[in-house]
Every structure is written in structure tokens, then in C-alpha cells.
């Protein structure tokens, strides 16, 4: 088939559908929740503006679209004149070393950029007050670092003064900076680029979004996320084993996910040992009808054990103390795992039913892992695209992924929209099917609302 | 940011690009190779026809688009009347049991379909001449099968007589059939559905494409593929270890990939121990200037050891004997791994340079693995979508993935377009960057030509 | 060499030793600590009494020796009349299912014993008051259980009334009982056998010692121990990664080991990322000269990060609150990991030196694992020996290992001597060499004292 | 219990044994096969000559015994004057880098030996004709090498001229040499030490036996062996999956084991998926009564699939061509895996029964692995003992293990006795119990004969 045409993509059906689905009410609710993304819509074969023009009259100025990532034939920077810097910020995430390695390899081998400095311990490394000396990065230095978790540059949380950092970079002649980090880091990078332009010494500042929670909308699947849920599966299996081995054994696993429950959802779906998955996007009643405690009682009656996977941002309305914010300015969360452990223990004590609760928090054992092969490939490619973007003079943008392809995303857009599990989406539907847990309502925190 | 508009996605640049890229010639070639997918194109933000209508005047009849997969509010089949069948065909691929499990779980728990039969040993199981008795599949039977590789149903290669199979299905009252297999299997399923309609007893025949090579265009990433390259990484590491431990040690790893080199490319990129990656899509001269042997000589001089990853379909012009076809009708391939081993051995013997060649073929150790957590999730979701499609009366289609979303693809379209590594694409560029191997020309076999 | 003679085992030396070893003082201390096991002793080639008789005049009655485990040509029980029971007690340990599986396989296939009952939830399953129904165990039931961690029988802590249990067993006609559990469990099994003999209805009660800590003297290496330290290595690696990625990062890993630090010692030695290993057998000063805090300060000055592995029973003199005992009668321990975390945090706060401490407790992720292949083999063999012992009418004994060979150990002897890390032994010397930590004195708790 | 006495180790029995065991005939054969190691023998509690003296009148000169390994208070070599060399020879084995690392760490940190040279590519590195430059080994160089398989020094097969090597070592002032390798390597090391003594310049030559097959009698469990069978388990699982997924599927896995079937036996026992285990120590009839082909027919009739594990040295009487010897002087073996594949294929063709045979040879994927944590610990300890032995002036010996303890073994004794699976031992009995295969007779090759 040399050229796909519309009729090639028509699906055969046996006839009209006359019977109600067992979840037809839920499907109606879903259509109302996010109108316009219904199952009767069709998905475009083409995703490039130019290809589509053949079929549609486009108002190119108005059609939202992304610049495609990739190497350009013409460069803004003369490779010989480039002095590049790399900085890693915030909590650990599998793949950081892979990204550093990829940046150095592509800058060096592809563009002959030989002056690459690795700033130590996050933005602290751009503030001379801390006295950290940068690492000189060469292919020899980074050759094997992807076998280890963490970041050879070290990391720290929180911002530093923008002007101080820009002055530091200028003193060292850095004209290209790669910032690997989360929302706060990218906002800092944006401020830094703007300040540099203001000061008449523009720097290409390219971000590589780091979010183990997979919660950046324009990244689709962030590096480290697959490694994270792959490792999380082991924790769920262990909790399941403990739960099954005691009468009325209950295993609780707290997983990463401040605002988005992707790790919990994917890990639970992968291993099918969880009976309840609690995520920030979905509300759950504690007691009474259709509640977690009621469902847990029934589960124990029926099967003698239960496994609960809870994302760290779930159930905050029950457990978020006025805990203030951390150094990076993120709201501190209450611990829904410990909260549930206590609540469940007291509940069954009041029912006079002996239970055994085991609580697992594998957080650091996940964050410190080396990347899986899939994430290694992803990191190398993100790094290559970041290098290409920098060489072409882009700035104030991050490398994103959209519809499975790598794109340039303005940092402002990237940090403004969070990716969350759609409480009416097919992913969550699969979780409900796999666990058999009650269908609960979307949470207030769910950005799709 | 409540609503993304075109200007939100504009990327900041520091100014015009005046310098030639080191690969600008190659980028020109690339644009010529696959015109219209250039880096100056932009990628659409919207991928739903209905969303795009806001910005564009659409000729809906002509714009190629896919039906979106998912549960429908109305069903074609009355759940109580459904008798479902499942069949797995062809070579092993990680995740087969996950798909079987997912189908049974969703049919049973979501649609209350309780009569589900697993036909044994591929299409043989639909031919009474073989005398195989189907397995009755229940949630209890499939509960833990995803922990094992392979398929509990067994498999076989090659077709059976269509009419015989349709009669067999009708005798047993099967009205929904799931066919898990490759190209040949899906063609067989198509014929089967057409024959059943002809005979006035339509069956919903839904395919789940199985291709460890990841070579189906409308599937984007097939189940088992990630598991395959994840395991392949171990073989490359072992070959690298053997190569480094001998003076002039050469490790050759043959990986799966009859027509598409994705496994070789991803595995090599993940681990970065390979110095040469040979895939069906890219030609390579054997001897003389810019050839593999010349490059290998240089590599040994410089580094004393080398690792070659070769996809089974690479270099066929050198090694494909007139080997005929297998039972499924696939052309038998020559073995480029053994061919290279001999060629290289003779070459260095003639140069009087002692070398040590170790040849690794990990094929069965990869095909028989259980799925990684990522592939387990993918399989469960593919199965859920297949169940939804069947219940709504679709037929002669497979579950595909397009731009990261699950879609319905007519079987005819699915089997007619192969997915291959684009020899001018960014993935292959990354492989060249990571290995340092010569840039070779696209092969004749490369469908993009 | 057909027959080894004394002279064959003489080692060649180059001449007399004239120089002091850097640790000669320590070696003198060591000789004093455990006199008679010095390096000038020689080790016997023969370990069987009968073989040695050729060379030595033996007072057979006085020479301590073990009965060798293995199948006997004559049996006490008529296989047809055997009704066997299996019970698993206490905390989880990798390999429990392997042992259950091995018992069933050997009893069934070797001895044609078909009535095998698996009692649920530890000794609770022998007390009808709990109403647990035993599982009927067959090869079909146990075929694949070794792929999962935990125990299919379930477990519980603590004893039940001996007479109640004996009556329950007699009512069911059980004449052979296998008790898989720790010290408390074996003491319970001993009481049970004695009571049954008293009541004139003897039961063969054979124990298989379960101790993840590897602290039973006559078992040498207990099942599950290798799996435990193999998994513990991952936790140490993760802590190391976290520690290195922060300036003055400190990782603390708490590992199993109530009285014996084998898991901590082996895991630290295997991965070589730990800088301090704290075990129950070795004392450590907190502050001042030669203390952990002083050594930690120096380490941070020199290397910017540190990793501390602490066995749960270490440092009890600092942290054991009057925490009472658990259901099995074990003294509850203070948590030396949390204690150290707080102590270290306060110490460096007082020095005004910012540090980052990450605390990892992987306990449940280790206990719930399936056994490694080595432990699977060990479990199968322990089970086979236990079955052989039971069929020959042995009772009140456990299967042990001595000098690398499986032996029968009277339960009374097995529970009376603890195996501990010798603070002057070569294992601990290797740990000191690998970590560079100070040489500290043996703890009061060290049974070798 | 402060002091174990003979009566503490008496096991309780319920009474005399009156019934015949189902394998009593086999047990009689076993007693005849290896007289003196019967089950009525008892095993000594004490294994030190000095401890035993309390109970027995010893003829110390005649009682065979080993020198115990460990650090000595007095050294032969002045640490400052030591120049050490390390060489690795023969095929790869997991743990080589761990041993190298351990030697460097202990020599450097314990004895302040700073001049340590790593000779490249086996004994070639001691022959200047090859022009290999030694690596200067420091803690910094070897710090992380244990994470990789293979040997950083490289290896080669076969001997070099002894005099040439001794002269080379003397020219460089080497007075301590560590030889890591198999039988041939240790024989070479012995010759080297003898020649050096002859020439009046004695060298401490200490061997660390490397045998992935675990076939050295005085080593009990060689480094790399556990890693090998742990990885072999994966190959068996894959073969099992392939076999089950085809009707009459047969999986054949060839594992290492030239003269000793330990890897095959342990791997098969660990995973319990094998139906036949063929090892060099046990003969098997090909055709006719009680033969492998007959047993295979029955197995396929009963279960539709079969898995065969074959050690590379098994069935040589059927397949060893006159293949000559390799560079190290080892007899080349016929390939019993390919032989069986062909034999089985033809056999069932003649019976007109369609089968599917899959053949897996995971050899290189096993040899190139990094060591498991257990093997890492073992390697570090072997290295430490080797360093201690060398410093005390021992020579012409290897580090062995006897009854679970590390000992010094004269090289002559070590290379003269092979460790094999006892065809009447409990290990092999467990294999027969786990597979259900026929009981076959000991092979001619079985050294215990």
C-alpha cells in the first residue's frame, strides 16, 4: 500500500450496536468530563501541518503546533566558540547520568565542542559562594557513568540568585547551558536566560525535564518513569507476599506521585497483585458506603488478605498537615501511607478483627536505580535533541515529546500544564478492571476538572 | 494555562543560524529521502479531527484518520450470548500470556462473558484433524500465567484451511475470535472473517499483532519489543566482556529483526558497547573503502577489541542462500552472523593478525522471557481494547497504536505497511553517533525507498 | 593421586618469617579470644570417624560427632501408614515454599506418602480454636510455588498449647510432622514430640531451622540467607547513590540481624560501597576518640559522602528501650538506624555542617523475595533430608549442616548455640579491610566471649 | 551450652527400622561404590587436629591435614620490598575482576605493597615476545571493576616457555606472583616457581583456582560456579517455555561441565523444569530399554513436551570425534547437545511423530557475567587469603576450601584430584528425584570408580 487514504482506515463492523454496555453510565460521565475527546472522534493519520494541508484549509497562524526536534543544517553557534555547562537539580531520578553522558557524547563527537563543564550540586554550583569546582566533562569521564544511578554532578534543592548565577556563567564564558530538573529548575533556567538576554549576553538555555512522577504534559513519558514503575513492581510483589502469608494480612506500599498517580497506576497494572490503588487524581471516601474501609472489610472476608498501593499525593485532604514547603518551594505532603496504616489498624481493632499490616516505602531504592535499557535509550535521545537545539540557538525551551515524537516546547508552556491520570480515561479504567476496586469520583486536585 | 494557543508553542531563538552543521550534507540527503517530513515542518498539537475543526476547514471524507479504541456505550453482542475464542500463532514473543490473561479478565469481569475457549497450538487448534482439545479459560486459570513466558495455549506455524476452521468455530458456537500473531496470522484471521460473513454467520475477528521485531507500521511499539531489547542488552554486554578479555577479541551478536532493525538499534543504543550495528534497512560494503572490514581493522588497531550487533535480516545480499520458505510462508534468511564470523576470520587470517571471535545467538533466551512490567501493562491494555472492539461488533481489524494512542486499524492496512528504521531518521543518527560506525546507504530492502 | 597422604598436603615455604605483620598485635588478641583455633593448627582431611580411625586411636564414646543425614535402607514407618503434616512459623524468609515443595515431592515420589497436610498460619493451624482448615498437599498443588516468595501455608508468631496441638494431630492421625521455623518454633516442636511420646503416640517431629539472620551454629548457612544478602546489596547500592549525589550525603541502611551480623557483613563485602558496618557482635563508641561520629567526620572531610550499614541488633546499649517482647517471646529491639540518623543529624548540626541523611529499611522487600537458585537447591536438599530422617523414625532433631555436609542435630543442641560473626575472625577482618572502618572491640552480646 | 560433648549430638529415634526403603537396593550399591563413607559413619564435630587431640591419640605425622589459611603475625617478605604480579589465564569465569580487585586492595591497604603489576592476556603477558605492557594496579584503578564481567587484564590460553617467563619476572623484580586460572595455569605456575628456586631467586607463587565447572576437589566450591548455575537457570526456563509452547516441543540446553556435571545438576535442581540431566559422571544408553530415547518417548506421550539439560562432557562415548586438543592442552570434546538434537530428530522422524526441537547454548552469556553477591564475597576472601599466604612466603600452593574453611593446598595435590558429582551421592539422588529420570550407571569417566 503505497499511500494511505481515508478509506484504507475504515473499520469493518458487523452491524448496529443495540445493547447497553455494563459501564454505559460511566462512559456518559466520561464524555461530560472531558468533552470533545469522545470515542466517536477520529484520530488524524497525519501529524505534520504540511502533510495535512493536502486535505484541509489551514489557518496556520492559529493552528497550535510544535516545532520538531532534531539536528539543523545551519547552526547559530560556531562549534569552536561554544562553552557548554550542565547542571542537575532536585531529587534523584533514574537516567540522570545517561543524560549527562549523552550530552557530552553528542556535543563532543558530533559538534566538536570540547569545553563542557559539569556544575556540582545543582544551582549551588552556579553560586561561587558555595565554592564548588565544576567537573571538566569529556567522553573519557562519562563513558561508563550510565551504569550507575544518581548523578555524577551531585544535586541540591532550591533556587539561587539569578544575577549571581548569570555573572558566574559569563565569567566562565558559558554560552550554552543544559538544565536537568523539575518545574522549579526549569523556571530557574527561564529566569536565567531572560536575565542573560537583558544583560546583552544571551545564553542558549535548554531544559531536559526530570520528573519521576511523569507529570509534565508536554513530555508524555519522562525519563526514569519506566524504571520507577518497573522497580515499584518489586515492592508490590513483596507486599503481596507478606499480606498473603498472614491471616488478614494487609500490605501498604507508598509510591512516588505528588500530583499524578502514573507510577502507582502502571505498577499496579503490571503486576496485578494490588487490590486498591489510591492516586491524587481520584477521591476516596474513608468510611461508610463505597469507602476504602468498607471495601477492605469485604475483601478480607472474601480473600483473607489485601494489598493497597498509595501514591504519596493521594488522600491529602485527610492527611496534609500544615507542613510548609521544602527548599524547592514544593508544598510538603502529609503521608497517606502512615495515615492509612493507622486508620486501618484502629478500624479493625474497633471491629475486634485481628489484622497484620506491613508498610513499605521503597522510595530511595527506586530513585537511586540505574535506568532500564528503555530509559537509557530515551535519555540518550533527549540529550541528543537538547544538544541539537542548543547549537541552533534555541533557548528558554525544553525537549518534550508529543504524540510519540520529540518536539521543542517553550519552557513557559511546559511548566504550566501538568499531566495527570484522567479519572475517566482508559488507563484508569484498566486499573479499576484489574483491581476490582470501587469507581470513585475525580479529586479536586485533578487538573482536568 | 487553561487553553493552549498557537503562540504558546513558539520557541525562542537567539538569532539566525549562520554556520554549517557538520552533518549538513547528510541532512540534505535525508530531506530528499523522505520529503515532507522535514524539520521545518511543525507537529500538530491536536490529533483529533473534531478538535482540529476549530482551526481548519476539513474535508472529513478525505482526511485519513483512525477510529479510536475504547469501550463503547452500546454493544453489538449481547454479553450472555458471546462465546469467545483465543488463538496464539507463530514464534514466541514475551507477553503472550499477558494478552491471554487480559482478554479473559476483561471479557469475564467487565462483560460477564463466561464461555471463553483457548484453542491449542495455533491454527491447528481450529482444525479438528489435529484432535487438540481447547482449554476452557477462566480468571482462575489465567490468574498467574503472566509470570511465565511463552503461551499456555501453545503455538504452531502456518495456516490451516479457512473453511475447515470456520466450520469448526460455528460448530462450537464461537462468535468472537481473538487472533494473536504476526502478518500471516492476521491474513488468516481476515480470510476467516470474510468466509464466515460469506456463510452468513459473521464472527467478530479481532487481531492483536505480535511482532517481536516491532515491524508493523500502525502499531508503533509492539508488545514484547521492549522486553526483547532489554534482554538483548545482556547478550551485548556478555559479548563485550568476551571481546575485551582477549587481544583482538571480536564479539558478534545476532539479534532478531528479519526486515526491521529496531531491536539491534535500541539494544545497541541502550548499552553503548557495540561498535557496529548492521540492520536490514542499511547496506554495508564488505571490503574496500568505507567497508565493515576496513572499519573493523581500524577499530582493532585503535582499541584491540570490537563488538558487532547484527540483525538477522541484515546483509542478506551476501548470505541469503536459496533457502526456501518456512511453514508460515516467510522467506528463510541466510545467517549474517555466521557469514560475518567466517568472513572476518578469513580476512584477518590473510592479514596474519590473530583474532578471537565469539558468536552469540540469544534468540530463544529472549523469545521465552516473561514480559517486563512495561510490556505487561501494554499487553493488558491491548487485550482490554480488543475485548471492547469485539463487543461492539468490529471485525477484520487489529488493535494498533498511533501517535501514542490506541486505535482500530483495518487488518488489510495493518499487514500492508511495514515499520522500518528510517536510515536518515534521528534514531539511526543516534546509533551512528553512539557507535562511531561509518554512515552507509539505505538498503534495497528499505521500504521507505 | 589415588590416596591422599599427610605429606601430600604439606605446603612449600620460601623460608622463615622475620617481619612483623601490620596487624600482628590484633592477631595476638585474636588468639587469646578463641584459644585453640589458631592459624598454626591444622585442619583434618578426614571428617568421618571411621576414616580417621586408620590414623588415630579414638575414644568413640567421647569424640563429639554428628549423625550423617541421608536416606536409610530401612525405614521405621511403613510408607502407606504415614500421615504427614507441615507447618511454617514466624517471619517470612526466602525459600519457605521451596522447602514445602521439596517435602511434598520427596515424600510423594520417593516414599509414596500421599496424605500430606499443610497446616495454616503457623501453630495456630494446630489449634482447632482458630478454625483454620489444613491444605491437602500434592505434587500438583506445590509444583510451581517456589517461584513465589512467602509461604502458601501462611504463618503466625508465637506458641500454642502443646497438649491441644498433640490432641489435634492425633485426631487427624498425623505421625510425621515437619516444623519450619526459628528457635521458638523448634522449642515448640520439641515439646510437642515429648508430649506425644508421653502420651504413648510418638510422632516423628523433624525441624528445618529457618533463620534469615543465619544465626544457628549447627546450620552453618541457613536457607534464605544468601537471598537476603543478595537483595540487601541493592539497598546498599541505592543508599550509596543517594549519598554520593548530595554534598555530605549520608546513607544509612538497616538490615536484618538481631544477634548476628552476617547479612550486614556479607552484603557490605559483596558490594564494597559501605564505609561503616555495625553489627551486634562488635561494640562501637558513639563519640570521642575512635568513635563512629569521629570517623564519620573524617570520612566526610575526605570524601564528601558516607554509607553506614547497621544490623538491627547493633548498638542496643544505646537504643534498646524497655520495649518488651513480641508474641514469639523475642526481646523487642530498639531501632539503631533511626537512633543513628538522629544522633548524626544533631551532631553535624552542632558542628554547623550541613548534611543530607537518607535512611533505608528494606526489610520487607527482602523477606518476601523468592529464593535465589542457590537457596532453591539448598531448600530442596534440606527437605529431602528431613523426609529421609522422618521415615527412619528420627525425632526431636533438625537438619543441620556441618563442615559443608548435611547432618542430624538434636533440637536441644541446635537451639542452644548461636552462630555469630567472630569479631576476630577472617570474615570480619575482610569487612574491616574493605570498609577501612576502625577496629572496635567485641560486644558484650558476642557469645564467643 | 558452653561445651559440646558427644552425648549432646545423639539423635532421638522412635525405634528400630523394620521396613525396606524403596531405594534400599540402590543404597547397597552406593555403599559398595564408595566404601567407608556410609550413612552409619558419623561426622566429626572437631576439624582441627589440636581440638581433636583431647579425645584421640593422634599420629600427627600420618594424619592427613591442611594448613589453615589466614594472616600470619610474622611475614617472610618485607612489605616495602614486595613487587607483586597478577595474571589471569584461560576462559572467562565470573569473579575474575573481583579477585584482582581483592588482591590489590588487601596488598595495598593491609600490607602497604604499592608496586602491583597486572600482566596482560594470560601467560603471554610474561613473554616479552608478545610485547604486552603490564597495567600498574592501584586501588583507584580497581575500585569499580567488580561491576563488570571478564578480566581487565585480558586472558589467553596455553603455556609459555617457563624460563622466558622467569627471566621476565626477575628483570622486573617481581617476587610475588598470583596466578588465577585452571589446571593448566596452576601447573605452569608450579613450574615457574620451581624454576625460580632453581635459579636462586625464589618467588612466592600463589594460585587461585579458577574453574567454572567446580571440578577441583580441594576447592569445594569454586568462585564463579554459583553465578554460572544461577544464570544457567534462565536458559533452562527459556528452553522450558519454548518446549511447552509447541506440541511435542523438546528443549535442549548445553551447559558447561567438561568432566563434572555440577552446573547441570545444580541448575536443574534449582528450577525443576528439566526432565533429563546428562552429566559426564553418569552413563546413559541411547536406545532400547531404560534409554534416553525410550524415556523421552514416554515423557512426550504423558506430557507433550520435554527439557534436556546436558553438560558439555556428557555422552562423549557417542560424540567425541578425534578432535585433538586446544591450546591449553585440553582434549577437545564432541558436542553432545548437537548430537542429541540430531539423534532425537531422526528417531522421531522414523516414528513418524512430529516434534519441535530447540537447542540453546548459553555458554558465553554465562561466562561473561559479573559475579553474584555471594561470588563477590568469595572472591574477595580468596584474594585476601592469597595475599596473606604470599606475604608469609608460601609458594607452589593454591587457596582451597575444605569442610567450609579456607586452607592452603599444595598445587601438586590440587591439580591431581578432580571433584565430580558422586553418581551415588545425595546431590545426584535429588536430581533423580526432581526429574524422575531413569537411574543410570556411573560412567567410565567418573573418577570415583
TrEMBL record, chains A, B, C, D:
Which residues hold ATP? 91, 157-158, 182-185
Primary place of residence?
cytoplasm
Q: Which residues bind Mg(2+)?
A: 183
Binding sites annotated in the UniProt record for substrate:
211-213, 256-258, 312, 364-367
Active-site residues, Swiss-Prot/TrEMBL = 213 (proton acceptor)
Cofactors needed by this protein, per the record, are:
Mg(2+)
Q: Per the database record, which ranges form the Phosphofructokinase domain?
A: 84-389
Superkingdom as given in the UniProt entry: Bacteria
Quaternary form? Answer: Homodimer.
Name of this protein: ATP-dependent 6-phosphofructokinase
Species for this entry: Poriferisphaera corsica
Amino acid at each position: 500500500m503505497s499511500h494511505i487514504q481515508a478509506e484504507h482506515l475504515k473499520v469493518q463492523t458487523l452491524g448496529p450496536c443495540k445493547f447497553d454496555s455494563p459501564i454505559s453510565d460511566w462512559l456518559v460521565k466520561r464524555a461530560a468530563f472531558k468533552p470533545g475527546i469522545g470515542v466517536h472522534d477520529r484520530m488524524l493519520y497525519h501529524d505534520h501541518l504540511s502533510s495535512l494541508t493536502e486535505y484541509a484549509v489551514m489557518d496556520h497562524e492559529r493552528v497550535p503546533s510544535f516545532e520538531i526536534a532534531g539536528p539543523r543544517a545551519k547552526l547559530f553557534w560556531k562549534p569552536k566558540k561554544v562553552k557548554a555547562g550542565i547542571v542537575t537539580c532536585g531529587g534523584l531520578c533514574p537516567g540522570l547520568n545517561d543524560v549527562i553522558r549523552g550530552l557530552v557524547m553528542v556535543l563532543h563527537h558530533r559538534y566538536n565542542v570540547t569545553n563542557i563543564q559539569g556544575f556540582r550540586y545543582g544551582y549551588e554550583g552556579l553560586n561561587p559562594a558555595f565554592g564548588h569546582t565544576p567537573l571538566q566533562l569529556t567522553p573519557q569521564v562519562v563513558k561508563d557513568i550510565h551504569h550507575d544511578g544518581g548523578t555524577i554532578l551531585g544535586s541540591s534543592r532550591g533556587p539561587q540568585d539569578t544575577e549571581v548565577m548569570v555573572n558566574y556563567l559569563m565569567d566562565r564564558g558559558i554560552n550554552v547551558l543544559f538544565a536537568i530538573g523539575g518545574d522549579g529548575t526549569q523556571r530557574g533556567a527561564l529566569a536565567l536566560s531572560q536575565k542573560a538576554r537583558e544583560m546583552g549576553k544571551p545564553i542558549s538555555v535548554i531544559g531536559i525535564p526530570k520528573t519521576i512522577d511523569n507529570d509534565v504534559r508536554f513530555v508524555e513519558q519522562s525519563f526514569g518513569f519506566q524504571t520507577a514503575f518497573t522497580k515499584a513492581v518489586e515492592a508490590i510483589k513483596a507486599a503481596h507476599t507478606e499480606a498473603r502469608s498472614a491471616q488478614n494480612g494487609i500490605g501498604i506500599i507508598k509510591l512516588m506521585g505528588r500530583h499524578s498517580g502514573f507510577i502507582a497506576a502502571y505498577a499496579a497494572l503490571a503486576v496485578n497483585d494490588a487490590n486498591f490503588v489510591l492516586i491524587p487524581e481520584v477521591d476516596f471516601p474513608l468510611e461508610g458506603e463505597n469507602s476504602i474501609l468498607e471495601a477492605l472489610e469485604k475483601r478480607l472476608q472474601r480473600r483473607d488478605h489485601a494489598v493497597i498501593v498509595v501514591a504519596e499525593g493521594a488522600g491529602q485532604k485527610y492527611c496534609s498537615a500544615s507542613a510548609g514547603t521544602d527548599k524547592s518551594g514544593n508544598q510538603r505532603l502529609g503521608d497517606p501511607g502512615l495515615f492509612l496504616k493507622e486508620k486501618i489498624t484502629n478500624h479493625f481493632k474497633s471491629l475486634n478483627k485481628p489484622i497484620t499490616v506491613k508498610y513499605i516505602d521503597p522510595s530511595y531504592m527506586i530513585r537511586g536505580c540505574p535506568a532500564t535499557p528503555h530509559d537509557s535509550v530515551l535519555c540518550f535521545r533527549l540529550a541528543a535533541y537538547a544538544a541539537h537545539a542548543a547549537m541552533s540557538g534555541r533557548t528558554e525551551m525544553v525537549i518534550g515529546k508529543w504524540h510519540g515524537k520529540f518536539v521543542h516546547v517553550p519552557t513557559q508552556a511546559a511548566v504550566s500544564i501538568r499531566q495527570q491520570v484522567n479519572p475517566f480515561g482508559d488507563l484508569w479504567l484498566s486499573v479499576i478492571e484489574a483491581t476490582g476496586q470501587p469507581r470513585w469520583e475525580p479529586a479536586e486536585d485533578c487538573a482536568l476538572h
